[in-house]
Amino acid sequence: MPAHLDPRLLRAFLAVAEELHFTRAAARLYVAQQALSRDVRRLERELGAELFVRTTRQVTLTGDGERLVPLARRALQAQDDLLAAFGPARPLLVDVNSPGLETGRRVLHRARELAPELELMARYESGLTGAAAEIVAGRLDASFGRYAGLDAALRASLEHRLVRWEPMAVLLPEGHRLAGLARVPLAALAGESVYAGAGNPRTPEWTDLARLLFEGRGIEVAAPAPLAVGDEEFQRVMAKSPNPILAVVGFPALPGTVLRPLADPVPLSPVSLVWRKGLVHPALDALRRAAAELASAHGWLERPAGGWAPDIDMSMAPSHA
User: Fold this and answer.
1) Which of 239, 243, 246, 241 shows the shortest CA–CA distance to 261?
2) What phi, psi does 190 have (nearest 5°)?
3) For the packed helices 33-47 and 7-19, what is the interaxial angle rounded to 10 degrees?
4) Element counts in the chain: helices (H) and strands (E)
5) In this structure, what is the dihedral angle of CA atoms 200, 216, 320, 108, given to the nearest 10 degrees?
6) Pairing between β-strand 193-194 and β-strand 120-123 as defined by DSSP bridges
7) Under a CB-based contact definition with an 8 Å cutoff, are residues 273 and 95 in contact?
8) φ, ψ for residue 250, nearest 5 deg
9) Would you say 183 and 265 are in contact if contact means Cβ atoms under 8 Å apart?
10) Cα separation of 250 and 163, whole Å?
11) Per the confidence metrics, is the pTM higher than 0.90?
């Protein structure tokens, strides 16, 4: 047995063990496939054990490989904990989904004020489902969104704190029949197809929230649109559609649209801060403090009388929320 194992080799092994595919594992680690294969072979030589069965069609773990998975995870987590506790803290990677979503952005900005010596790096890449998979894989640290809408397998690896019951709104084309209203009653949307990210693999938790809201009200979830990455592409694709767009009250209106709050009842989007279970990082502590401070200062956890939220979200909210 070697006196020392390079943690890089363990990370290479875990990536392949979780993906069971060398090409996908290499892309996940941002390394060449040949380099990843060399690292796995080196680890096998140093341990004196075959860790994978490789064929032209599939990659599977051997018995020794399965035995190594939990040990490698614990070893790498211990290293991360040590570095977080004693070394200069690495940047905390926080996905706020979109620059147009104010809740996560405001929490992030306040956390930076509370801990100016720490680096909190923003990402604007995905909805919570997409971000959660990245958090579990270790490529992100935290994000914001509807925790109850995540698959149970993802939730098992995550922790969350409800930050806000955010009132929902609708983006309407300027010439839409409802654009002149100050508030749009849900009943007025009967017969409409409303865009809510259907078909976007990164945001099914949002589409599910829309379906629950529209159920029994005569409102349809609009068919999938081409998947747009980035604000500019999203605006371009949405400009081609006459459909209203489900949003939240803090979302900025797109060119050629108006933003109107929804009413009767007021639908609420539950926004949680979500992070990897067991993560230890001083910047995460700052994020959690910032979320609690803003929620208290602005009444974000107070639900309006008659406000609507799905039962599953209500059941996962703390009693004080």
Assistant:
1) 246
2) -55, 135
3) 110
4) 11, 12
5) 20
6) unpaired
7) no
8) -90, 0
9) no
10) 15
11) no
What does the pLDDT look like over 198-254, one tens digit per residue? Answer: 888 899 999 999 999 999 999 999 988 767 666 667 667 666 677 899 999 988 877
**Contact indicator for 154, 133 with CB cutoff of 8 Å:** yes
CA dist list (Å): 209 to 23, 43, 215, 275: 35, 45, 10, 21
From the list 142, 134, 86, the residue with the least C-alpha distance to 111 is 142
Give 146-192 as a DSSP string. -GGGS-HHHHTTEEEEEEEEEEEEEEEETTSTTTT-SSEEGGGGTT-
Host H or E run for residue 28: helix 22-29
Which pairing describes strands 142-145 and 268-276: parallel, antiparallel, or unpaired?
Answer: antiparallel
Reply yes or no: is the peptide bond before residue 265 cis, omega within 30 of 0. Answer: yes
Closest CA to 108 of 126, 125, 90, 120: 120
For the chain, residues with pLDDT lower than 70 are 1-3, 84, 86-89, 226, 228-232, 234-235, 237-240, 318-321
